[in-house]
Amino acid sequence: MKRLSVIALVFAIAFTVFFMAPPLLSRQFGLYPLMKVGDVVDIFTPLILIPLYWMLFRLGTDRTPGLAGILVFLLFAAFWVEGQGMHLAANSINHLLVGVEDSDAYSLAYFYDEVLSHYMWHFGIFGLSAIIVFRQLRHPFAEKQAVSWVIILAGIIHGFTLFVIVIEGGTAWLGVPCIVLAALFGSIWGWPRFRQQPLLLFFYVNCLVATLFFVIWGVYWGGLPEFSEVGIID
User: Fold this and answer.
1) What is the distance of C-alpha 53 from the center of its chain?
2) Which of 40, 76, 136, 195 could bridge to 199 as Cys pair (CB 3.0-4.6 Å)?
3) What does the alpha-carbon distance between residue 111 and residue 140 come to, in Å, rounded to a whole number?
């Protein structure tokens, strides 16, 4: 369980870095100036995070995953990777289409960048989270352990990042119900099980934290506008 707690924290930090850093690294990439530094960093996003998802999936119980579980994991991972790759390419191209916003090329790139890729990517995120929790529920650890503060810290970090990507990604109708329902599930079902199911605790904490931020954001703005729509980011 200690190893799992550390992996959960590494996953939460890596998830935050690879989702939040690329938009901030807007300097042109020296070796190929048509790309930005953030584009180059984003190339490594699935190469780092998908193996971390697998480690959570694999190490979350004492049992080796079955074929059905592996296939479902691969399906959601495919959504995750295809959405992320589509977003990376379309977003990078969109940077070069300033001044031609009325063109079909801009409209298509925008659709891939801001709509289709976001929903595919986030569907993969929630799907992978769900199958990890489902596997943990079916196969808890045999011995009870003290609640890990590392797991709780990881959940807080990941929860805030989930809030950010759902709001700025414009996927609230998908993300908010998934996250709120997961928080309710954890509140009702999880309390007696957290000491044998640390990943249930991890995802419960991150969904609870994200839900609290959704409520605060929604009350303050009277809805769930993107950060760019209210002028917080460009």
Assistant:
1) 10
2) 136
3) 42
